[in-house]
Amino acid sequence: MHRFLWSLLIALLLSPLFSPTQVNAQESGIKLIPAFVDERADPGAVLVEELRVTNLSPEDKEFFVYKRDITGVEEGGVPIFAEEGAEPTSFEITEWMSFQAEPIFVKSGETLSLPITITVPGDASPGSHFGGIFISQEPPKLREMGAGVGYEVASIISIRINGDVIDDARVRSFSTDKLFYPTKSVQFSAKIENQGNILIRPRGPLEVKGMFGGNTETIIVNDGLAGVFPNTVREFTFSWNEEGLGFGRYTAILALVYDGEDGQKTIDASVVFWVFPSKVIFPILIGFLVVIFGGYFLTRYYINQAIMRAQGGRRITTYRYRKQVGMSRLTFVFVSLMGVLAVSLIILLILFA
Q1: CA 100 – CA 117 distance, rounded (Å)
Q2: What is the number of other CB atoms lying within 10 angstroms of the CB of residue 298?
Q3: Are 345 and 212 in contact (CB under 8 A)?
Q4: Taking a C-beta distance cutoff of 8 angstroms, is the pair 157, 118 a contact?
Q5: 3 state DSSP class of 115
Q6: What does the DSSP assignment read for 268-293?
Q7: How far, in Å, CA of 97 to CA of 259, rounded?
Q8: Cβ 131 vs Cβ 39: under 8 Å
Q9: Which residues 6+ apart lie within 8 Å of 179 measured at CB?
Q10: What are residue 240's DSSP bridge partners?
Q11: What SS3 string covers 318-330?
Q12: Rounded to 5°, angle at Cα 351 from 345 and 353
């Protein structure tokens, strides 16, 4: 139960990962800003950041402050915070951070400043380092034992250490949820793999082109600048919706840009899907089939009647029918089908081009 509540809390407060939003827990009356601190520093540097804690509840309260490292992200961008005694990674930061260790007392409606000092070691590894500063109504040990009942809020700290930075990324996969669509309403999924040692925020346009050309709507993917943790894969889902009828083969081109060490870098991918407006095409096809078969039988009946009248009311054999008409019944049906098919294609081109 404790793990479930903890996961639910983190998902509500910190997803998407590293998005610049205000963290707020109205139920417990706690507000902590900023929700995200992003700085660059050299090895050996000392940074001082200021967090502001507001007591929104009608009562004066005492809050506890503690810190935890971030070791990765779950699917959907929810951060994974390190448990006590967990194996170290190359992204730790909590040992660099210091702040007021005692509980802080905040009156109702009051906002207190909470200075955070970050002392970067001289041998700090280049790249991004992550951690979280938590504000809670219960001591950390009590929460770890599952006895805590209140909510907590957190501020994410991200420090990028200058040096030998690796800023490689790629689109591992880019796909649609299905191949055929009845309308121009498509769901996309892009998995972005960060192969470097810094946090990246890929953002860019998705352009959809149809087989007949024409202008299509362009949407911006990850406009909220959600981040991708180093050495992880994050999935982004988004949709393309455009009014009007669509038909045929479409190509979606995804082009994302992120900030690298020496400037912006781009990654791209494409996917093909098809749009067949069944509610429009099926009635048209049924109508064409009715016209084809109706026309065939009516024409055949008319020709047979005309020949029979010419022969004095006698039925004509297949051989004499072909000799007099110039083609077999099968050829006549084939020519009729091709003619109607050509007309159908012309109508479809007019409707959807």
Answers
A1: 10
A2: 10
A3: no
A4: yes
A5: strand
A6: EEEEEEEE--HHHHHHHHHHHHHHHH
A7: 26
A8: no
A9: 273, 274
A10: 186
A11: HHHHHHHHCCCHH
A12: 85
Q: pLDDT of the chain along its 353 residues, tens only?
A: 444 334 433 333 444 444 444 444 444 578 899 988 989 999 999 999 999 999 988 889 888 898 888 877 776 667 778 776 667 777 889 899 998 877 889 998 899 999 999 999 999 989 999 898 988 888 766 555 443 445 678 888 989 999 888 899 999 999 999 988 888 899 999 999 999 988 899 999 999 988 777 667 789 999 888 888 888 889 999 999 888 777 788 999 999 999 888 889 999 999 999 988 766 666 666 666 666 666 667 676 666 666 666 666 555 555 555 555 545 556 666 666 677 666 666 666 555 54
Contacts of residue 157, defined as CB under 8 A and 6 or more positions apart, other chains included, come to 37, 49, 93, 97, 116, 118, 130, 131, 132, 133
For tokens 């994302």, the residue is 256
Both tokens of 11, joined, read 């998902």
> Which domains are assigned to the chain?
2-161 (2.60.40.10), 169-275 (2.60.40.10), 278-352 (no CATH)
Q: Which residue type sits at 107? A: K
Residues 6+ apart with CB under 8 A from 144: 84
Question: 164-178 b/e with 16+ CB inside 10 Å = b?
Answer: ebbbebebeebebee
**Of residues 200, 288, 206, 212, the one with CA closest to residue 245:** 212
For residue 65, with 0-12 CB atoms within 10 Å meaning exposed, 13-18 middle and 19 or more buried, which class applies? buried
